[in-house]
Fold this protein.
Amino acid sequence: METVDLVSSAPIGPAAAVAPPRAVPARLVEYAPGCRIALPVHATLEVLEPAPIVEVPGARDGWRGLLRWRGDWLPVVDLAGRLGVEGAVEAGGHLLVLGWRPAPGQPFRHGALVLRAMPTTLRFGDDDQCSIPTDHALWAEIALACVWHDGQAVPIVDPARLFGD
Amino acid sequence: MREVLSRMEPAMTMDAAAATLPPMSGNFVLLGSGALQLLLPQADVGAAGHLGQRPRPSGQPGLFEIDAGDSQAAFVVALSPRMEPMEEFPEGRFLLTSFSGHDGLLLCWNEAKVLGRISLQPRALPPAMMAADAPIDAYVEFGDRIAFCSSGDRLLAHVFATLN
């Protein structure tokens, strides 16, 4: 399985070079056509080539199954499917591995997010902040904050909340 | 907002992706049908039999019939990887199992293996992933494969619910 290491890599995308003062980087991930979320850079670990996913009986919509990764099994989620929006990726898309610590001192956990395109990196400051969208109840569960970018609200998603921790 | 994006620490340390549950010990049966692998307590599973005839449609989608002797018929279900009754009876399912307390309904498999006196380490599936009435909530690893943990009652309740 070929991977792209995101932890040690340089920022992705040309806009990453333009850094407003006191701005911090975030990965932008397109989950449906024209719809994006932002993720903390340190939570994004690897982009994986399409890989076999074991379907899980009784899984809710948007949960693809379990993926073998570095000797472990990761839950795989398609955010478009969870939100019930058009544009869910067919089976076989690239995957973004996310890592988080559920609580201070607890072991790291990992999950994988279905990608429509390669993530990009942008920097955001406090001036970019906007309200978390209310068009779907899931945003209140998984988003920590929201930034305005390119005429669109981009929720900053907490990986732990995304995977239900 | 900047705190939200910068407060996390690098998350490369390898640790378990799933919460570990108390070990399970005893006798189990591993039932396989293609990508679906299930682990049930042996006490829940009746004797395995050979499917010597191709089941015929019963008239209800996902439910098939076979002759069970004495002019009686038995109902047969073949499960998909998502544990849903398949409307077309698949090739290669040649093993039949019954389940304690659920006479008259048989499930068919490619593989049935008894795992006697074994200790297994189940791993929890993320609760957010699972529907409230899901027939499983954990899995165990067998090398590079996994089997989902269930029970006869949960499995059959799921089958009946998806048939109706």
Observations:
- The two ends of chain B are 49 Å apart (CA to CA).
- The longest strand of chain B covers residues 24-33.
